[in-house]
Every structure is written in C-alpha cells, then in structure tokens.
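Researcher: Sequence recovery benchmark, item below. Answer with residues only.
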C-alpha cells in the first residue's frame, strides 16, 4: 500500500506542478501582457497590491491543489492502467479552476454583470494560445509521467 501511495504522490506532484505552471503562465500572458496589468497595474480587489509574476502564480494555485488531491486519492486506489485518463482529467479540471480563480480577481475591472463563465471566455480564452496551452499541457502530462506510469 505504501508503494501505491508513493507512486500516486509522484504522479500527483508531477501533473500538478505542470498544470500550475502552464495555467499561471497563461494568466501572465492573458492579463499581465495582453491586458497590461504587469505595467504598473494594481490588483482590482486589493488596490494596495501591485501586480507581479508571483501574484499570477498564487492566483492560479487551484491549478496545483485540485489535481494533486484528486490524483493522489484516485490513483492510490485504482490499478495502474487507469492512471493516464485520471491524470489528463485532473489536469483539465485543475487548469479550469486555476483559470477561473485568476479571472475572478481581474474581472471586476471589466464590469460586474458577467454571466457564469462569460468572463472566463472573454478575458482568458484566446483562439490560438488557449488550445495550444491545453494540447501542450496534456501532451506534457503524458510525456512527463511516462516513467512513473511504467
């Protein structure tokens, strides 16, 4: 049981860090560079805080926490041949939650009448960068976890 738990923890750590990294970098690109928040901007919900790269990583922390807990829980119970679909699903769920958290912090600058997921589509999703990020993230998950999946 300890070996299964260690195996699940390694898969969870690799996938979660990868998801967090890509989601935060996508947030840096979407809000920091395209919308210009890194050029001396302030965090809308906390006007005393300036926008930093580290702030984007902390905004997207859900992209680390959710996949880690999901993968650790599910992969420690299920057999090895079912781990890849769990990893890919957890990566997608984590990326969605990390993106949603980031958008929530900045959407107030663009109005307060957003419908559910409207702000995510309008402010975060890009027709070229977002699909590339998703494909790169899923392919990276498959590639990075291959040695652990055996």
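Model:
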């Amino acid at each position: 049981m300890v070996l299964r738990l260690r195996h699940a923890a390694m898969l969870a750590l690799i996938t979660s860090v990868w998801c967090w990294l890509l989601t935060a970098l996508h947030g840096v690109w979407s809000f920091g560079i395209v919308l210009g928040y890194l050029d001396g901007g302030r965090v809308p919900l906390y006007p005393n805080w300036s926008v930093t790269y580290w702030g984007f990583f902390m905004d997207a922390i859900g992209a680390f926490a959710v996949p880690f807990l999901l993968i650790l829980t599910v992969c420690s119970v299920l057999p090895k041949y079912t781990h890849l679909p769990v990893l890919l699903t957890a990566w997608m769920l984590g990326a969605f939650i990390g993106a949603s958290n980031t958008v929530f912090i900045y959407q107030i600058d663009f109005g307060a009448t957003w419908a559910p997921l409207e702000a995510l589509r309008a402010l975060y999703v890009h027709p070229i960068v977002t699909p590339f990020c998703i494909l790169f993230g899923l392919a990276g998950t498959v590639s990075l976890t291959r040695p652990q999946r055996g």
